[in-house]
Amino acid sequence: MTPPVGDGSRLPVVILGCRLRDGRPGRALEQRLVAALPAVRRQPDSPVVVTGSGEAPAMRDWLVRNGVDAARIITEDRATSTNENLENTRELLVDWPEWIVVTNEFHTPRVKLWAWHHGYRVRMVAARTPLVRIPHLWTREVFALLHSALRIIWRRIRS
Known about the structure:
The chain is α/β, with parallel strands linked by helices. The protein has one domain: HUPs (Rossmann fold, 3-Layer(aba) Sandwich), CATH 3.40.50. 47% of the residues lie in helices and 19% in strands. It is built from five helices and seven strands, in the order E-E-E-H-E-H-E-H-E-H-E-H. Strands 5-4-1-6-7 form a five-stranded parallel beta sheet. A two-stranded antiparallel sheet has the order 2-3. Strand 2 (20-21) and strand 3 (24-25) form a beta hairpin. It comes from Corynebacterium meridianum. One of its GO terms (biological process) is peptidoglycan metabolic process. One of its GO terms (cellular component) is plasma membrane.
């Protein structure tokens, strides 16, 4: 697909993976996919990247069932972390200087941190976190954000 021209109004949509349940998107992941649909529809000539080891094929199937042309979807199925989601996506979108990234609101600070670290330009779309999952996911995310920040500091010290 042709990269954006001039004004950057055409952007790829990157949807980050999350937990599956019985091979299908769990509640948080389904919220990401639902939140991504308006952005995907506003960018009809741009690629859609689904990223996550194990989750990406289920995400692709969900999007196709919900009207997204399969030819637009790029499946990145190697990533096992937020950082790998972004690094592997960069390999796929090397000609695209900016992306729309879709994740849940609890996850956006960590995505922004890794994007900043790598120098990637991202516009965030924050999906709602299912109410029942908030305590677990927000608690987990506090530790994950701290871990990511320490990894980034260590990488910068080493280089």
